[in-house]
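Lab notebook, bench 4. The sequencing result for the construct came back, and we need a structural model before the next group meeting so we can plan mutations. Quick request posted to the team channel:

Model the 3D structure of this chain.
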Amino acid sequence: TKPGAIYHGMGVSDDGNTLYAANDNVTNLSLDILDVSQIQARAIAPQATLLSNFTWPSVSIPQIPIPFTIKGHKYLLEVDEFNSTSDVVGAARIIDVQDPTHPYLTSNIRLQVHDPKNRAAVAGDTGAGSAPSGGVAGHYCSLPRRENPSLVACSFITSGLRIFDIRDPKHPREVAYFNKPTSGGSHAMSAPAWDVEHEQVWYSDSNSGFYAVQLTNRVAHWLHSH
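Done. Here's the predicted structure in token form:
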């Protein structure tokens, strides 16, 4: 739909009329929102129309946007991967898309170790390196459902599996984690999968294998809250 767009991952609204696309063209690291209602309507010679292009501070490589709602309000869960050329760690964020022509950043989903001012304190930690294929950077996140998901799970490479409470989208907070590094460190690269019925999150670590992680305490309770 526009020259130079290189889409890494995409998400579609439940009604099929809006496409959210993570653009990882190095000259335009951003999110595109497109009206694809003509395609959804199976029109002859359909056209997709760009509604907006949006980027954010600390962008690295936009990976995938996932639409969801909280109390009927429309948001995207967007996750970046790896690091930028300026060594800004990619992580995740919540973007308000209630008005698809004017999206804006609601909040960031980050760990303390992602903050550049904390890098020196962990410089000797094997897992805190900033190599493009490792370090504490982000890679994938997922939701247990699209409507009032309550929680989000993220794979943060050497930081393992991290789970955040997003019931208040302006103030996400980490509420659980699982990390079992080998001597070579963790390498959590997969998109976490949710088994809501059994209150589990499944993910794989390329250094040590597959894990089915049992949620406990209030985290398991929040998984069922709408």
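Residues 217-224 form the longest helix (8 residues).
Will bring this to the meeting.
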